[in-house]
């Protein structure tokens, strides 16, 4: 059974995908998402935060992600780009969510919606991005892992 947070990330990613393709209005995209089955089971506050925040910060986040990509972000598949935007948004603007949870959730989104190996790409990019976005948290966790 999917958690309300997982569902919110799925809907946010789908909304971002639609936005990347159409460059439509976030409110119109959200209105469309409301009609999608399962929407009522999503954490709507988290969904709105992710969708609106990722759209507002998309240029900034895409530019920050660029140094971790093997190609221009404009050449990413819309699914990978949307998943990376959701993950990057959470890493930068939602420090209360552990970075490993953010990365795991993004990997699950990529497995569900992306290409065959897209999840590996997403994992690698966000792992490097997290080390820069949350150096203290990532460094502390890696130091603990090394001791065991």
TrEMBL record:
Domain NusB/RsmB/TIM44: 7-130
Source organism, top-level taxon: Bacteria
Keyword set includes Iron-sulfur: no
Keyword presence, Transferase: no
InterPro entries assigned to the protein according to its UniProt record, in alphabetical order: NusB-like_sf, NusB_fam, NusB_RsmB_TIM44
Entry keywords, A to Z: RNA-binding, Transcription, Transcription antitermination, Transcription regulation
PANTHER family listed in its UniProt record: ANTITERMINATION NUSB DOMAIN-CONTAINING PROTEIN, N UTILIZATION SUBSTANCE PROTEIN B-RELATED
UniProt record similarity statement: Belongs to the NusB family.
Biological role stated in the UniProt entry: Involved in transcription antitermination. Required for transcription of ribosomal RNA (rRNA) genes. Binds specifically to the boxA antiterminator sequence of the ribosomal RNA (rrn) operons.
Name this polypeptide is given: Transcription antitermination protein NusB
Name of the gene: nusB
